[in-house]
Design a protein that fits this description.
This protein is α+β, with helices and mostly antiparallel strands. The chain is 32% helix and 22% strand. It folds into three domains: 1-43 and 208-278 and 509-532, D-Maltodextrin-Binding Protein, domain 2; 65-196, Dipeptide-binding Protein, domain 1 (Alpha-Beta Complex); 285-502, Dipeptide-binding Protein, domain 3. It has helices spanning 3-19, 54-63, 113-126, 132-135, 144-147, 166-172, 183-187, 197-200, 247-256, 267-273, 304-311, 316-320, 350-359, 378-390, 403-411, 429-436, 451-454, 460-471, 475-491, and strands at 33-38, 68-71, 74-80, 83-88, 94-99, 148-150, 155-159, 210-216, 220-225, 238-243, 261-262, 279-294, 328-330, 367-373, 395-401, 417-422, 495-508, 511-512, 529-530. The strands form four sheets. Strands 1, 8, 9, 10, 11, 12, 13, 14, 15, 16 and 17 form an eleven-stranded mixed β-sheet that branches. A four-stranded antiparallel β-sheet has the order 4-5-7-6.
Amino acid sequence: MNVMRWKQALGAAVAAAVLGGAGPALAATPADTLVMARKIDDIKSLDPAEVFEWGSGEIINNLYVRLMTYDPHDFSKLVGGAVASWQVSDDGLTYELKIRKGLKFQSGRPLTARDAEYSLRRVIHLAKTPVFIFQQLGWNKDNVAEMVRALDDETLVLKVAKPYSPSLVMSCLSAGVASVVDSEEVRKHEQDGDYGYNWLKTRSAGAGAYRLTTWKPKDAVVMESNPDFYLGPPALKRFIVRHIPEPSAQRLLLQAGDVDIARDLGPDQIKASRSNPDLRVDVFKKVNTYYVGLNTKNEILANPKVWEAFRWLIDYEGMANSFLDGYFAVHQSFLTGDMGLEEKPYRLDVEKAKKLLAEAGYPNGFSLDFLVANPSPFPDIAQSMQATFAQAGIKLNLVLRDQAQVLATYRSRGHEMAFARWSPDYLDPHSTAEFFVRNPDNSDASTNKSAAWRNAWDIPELSAMTEKAMLERDPEVRKQIYREEQKVVQKDSPMIMMFQLIESTVSRKDTSGFTPGPGFDTAVFWNTRKVK
């Protein structure tokens, strides 16, 4: 990587965005502008009806106001975004939402219930990847006009197919697809019934903290502040997310002052940054979990004693305290936060694993292909496991592939053993429970591609429990169901839960207030500021 070339390109981009293309490249970022270095080549669209990638997810969280959102100071609290208040009918099938007064789109128009109606219906009719979030409520193209209705400018009425848990329904309204778009502005740009899709994917029409001024794929996203934002004008006038794919380049640009925040540094770079007096490392626990999936179509991996043996052949703490320090924390259940299990019953114990393998009928071990994505630190994790598994006579053949290849193989049940990751689509526990403990059709032809299905784990009773939790209206009863399911996955499943992601964001000392939030699309930009 030619660092000077990156610095020149970055300086030119900032100069162009801030100075209209005039003047020399800047030695440091302007006082009213934040430049963040991040790998954002996954951005395909900025239309909230379509966005489902990591890079674009958090961008639209700052361009739009979602119907519901999370308290940026306490993400365990679901609060109203565009919604000021809500009521649920006694039968649990109808939700009446009151729209917050005073919200303005970047066009200057007030945000109304009619805009929310248009936005939700638009998601269903466009039917892009995240549409399933609303489809699970019983909405489809044939009934959405009946299920989603604005009674007037202030009142939005939503109907659902079953009496789902209210916390689940309201959490769905916190997903990116629940962003409210300016219906009048988008309608102006509709072509051939596309609901303005071809226009909106590269523009913004929201009421969020920022408005989009420029998106250059694999280059940068440039946003300007919205002075009418309902939580107050953002502290900084401009927010630029710069595509810097290599962590080493991010670190050098950060040290030079050419960027203010770096998001993708590796464990070694994070460790080195802690000793730099000009930098600060902020640590945030994410809801992302990392685990090993064992395909039970393999006769060896269908044996529960093998599942248990493998749990005792992983040096969880050794990895977390060395090359994963500041990147992963040991976590052995599929939910995190107050819904997750605190217990971490497994540690490296080769002798216990050997005994279990002998009881399973494999005293001399066996050989397996271990599918792993090649970005750091995944190969290092795989090599650690390769070494500890070898102590019990198990030969792990590391199959390193890019992330897309790993996903394609894993999603088609083409693996034997795979290192995988999960991030929920929204913060309600159902999003994660559905992935790990729901497999209503274990056949190869199933359209359900959950982790349970991918590993051919046939679980009719757990699937029924997951569906029961989806309908449970008592939060404590619902929480207990998820705890019981986690105990099963933790101790008696072909999925070995290992780590929780720790996002270590490295910033210049004069920058504060940036919050990535727990999810892939929960970052809050508007409170980021610089010390004058």
